[in-house]
TrEMBL record:
This is MBL fold metallo-hydrolase. The keyword Hydrolase applies. Pfam families: Lactamase_B_2 (PF12706). The keyword Hydrolase applies. InterPro entries: Metallo-B-lactamas, RibonucZ/Hydroxyglut_hydro.
Length: 277
């Protein structure tokens, strides 16, 4: 599997959309940016649909029409900009490679999909989109990828998900957005003998030790989770640990995130980074 990080910022982006803090000003001056988080696995399995999805297609030369399955972690706008889906067909898209798009997400994502597309979606477009409500601790097949939906610790208002994705004996554990996971997640991975070759961490808070949000993580919490995954055999000994989804409050300049990651043997994601496992 090949995972490509198309965006690596938290909800506000970096530089943040309305912000004039020192880090954001500097990021603007340097032209160093991180867009909202999204990942593409091989060519056909997409994780999340931020507002920058369109920009990602042009920046990285991605054929979004080839995507047949979309995993949505939760309904927050930085992860699910449903309105974009109205452009998937009719007179807005020709020569599409995948006829049907299957979207997986929780009940709230389903509602946001319905609300966000209600005014503009054409019947033809709607007919080629299937929404499947994903429950925590269930598995499904996404065009040859074995996908497990697991509970995130993110918001009380929604049953947000994280995902384990497996193909050809390789596994990716995608942990956005979440604070420290509950025991149930570890138990499930152990019981189902799911072992990650790559773990993608919510590192919204970067190297900050003071802030423990409970709904996102810092790098120290990432290290704690990785240590536990390794201990129970849910991560391969040579696992690649990637940190991503950085807030502007972490001043996530690339060189600083690289050195922070290096201290833990992690890899700091950047927009466009590709890893093959
Ligand atoms: Zn987020
Ligand atoms: Zn800022
Ligand atoms: Zn969120």
């Amino acid at each position: 599997m090949r995972i490509r990080y198309l965006g690596t910022a938290a909800a506000e982006g970096f530089p943040a959309v309305f912000c004039n803090c020192a880090a954001c000003k500097m990021a603007r001056e340097l032209g160093e940016l991180r867009t909202r988080s999204q990942a593409l696995i091989d060519e056909t399995l997409l994780v999340d649909l931020p507002p920058e999805t369109y920009y990602h297609t042009v920046r990285f030369g991605i054929d979004l029409s080839a995507v047949s399955h979309l995993l949505v972690t939760h309904s927050h706008t930085d992860h699910f900009y449903a309105q974009e889906l109205v452009n998937r067909g009719y007179k807005f898209a020709y020569g599409m490679r995948a006829k049907t798009l299957r979207i997986y997400g929780d009940e709230t994502v389903r509602e946001v999909f319905a609300e966000g597309t209600a005014r503009e979606i054409k019947d033809d477009v709607r007919a080629d989109i299937r929404f499947i409500t994903a429950e925590p601790f269930t598995a499904f097949d996404c065009g040859g990828y074995e996908v497990y939906a697991l509970p995130a610790k993110h918001t009380p208002s929604e049953r947000a998900l994280v995902y384990f994705i497996r193909k050809d004996g390789k596994g990716i554990l995608y942990l956005n957005d979440t604070g420290l996971p509950d025991e149930g997640l570890y138990d499930f991975l152990r019981e189902h003998k799911l072992r990650a070759d790559l773990v993608s961490f919510d590192c919204t808070l970067g190297g900050s030790q003071e802030i423990h949000s409970g709904r996102h993580m810092n790098v120290y919490e990432n290290a704690q989770v990785l240590e536990k995954l390794l201990r129970i055999g849910a991560a391969a000994p040579d696992v690649r640990a990637v940190i991503t989804h950085f807030s502007h409050n972490a001043a996530p300049f690339r060189k600083d995130m690289d050195s922070l990651a290096a201290k833990f043997g992690f890899i700091a994601a950047y927009d466009g980074m590709t890893i093959e496992i």
